[in-house]
Amino acid sequence: MFLFGLQSQVIFGQLRAVTTKTGYNYWLQIPEISNKNEKLPVIIFLHGRSLSGNDLNRVKRYGVLRAIERGKDLQAIVIAPQTSNGWNPDKVIDVLDQVLAEQPADKNRVYVCGMSMGAYGTLDVAGKYPNRIAAAVAICGGGSAQYACNLTQVPVWIQHGSADRAVPASESKKIYRAIKDCNQDADATLTIIPGGTHGSVERLFHGGEIYEFMFRHHKES
Prior knowledge:
8-stranded mixed sheet; alpha/beta; about 25% strand
């Protein structure tokens, strides 16, 4: 992957855009920390279809970056790529590998979360690369059955609004059942939010529960 910009420089407490010749362009947020030698957890946020395209500013309209903009304090490196046509797990991992190579990131504490199309992408990334992802949160989306058994290796929290008319809650129920069919003891949780619509569940990114869930988990060294 070829990148433009000062990728070798760590700039704490700043959001910056990274443009690539191949692969996804992405936002990179590194928090202000007192110990510059500290290895930080990594949160990958995957947006939904409405934010697709070639204008990276669209990615800040909702989700993790929007929560940070509104005051959410996350002691984690946040990667927020943009796609123009669905999520390719391989390209997401390419971005992750670039950040791991050049930033103070902890490879054993990598988390992925997303909403709508980004929820499908989240479970595809965690499902194709279960050895790379410590935990995943998928909101108002679904998943690919081909990855269900791999997803038994990753703690997953699937959430969906009961009143979602864009993506029915049955999509989340379907992938949850597929995971449990592979292993009934899999660390997978399904939460159906009463009255939640496709848009209203975005509030989950502004609370603390999904981050507390992710940060509880880490891969073995």
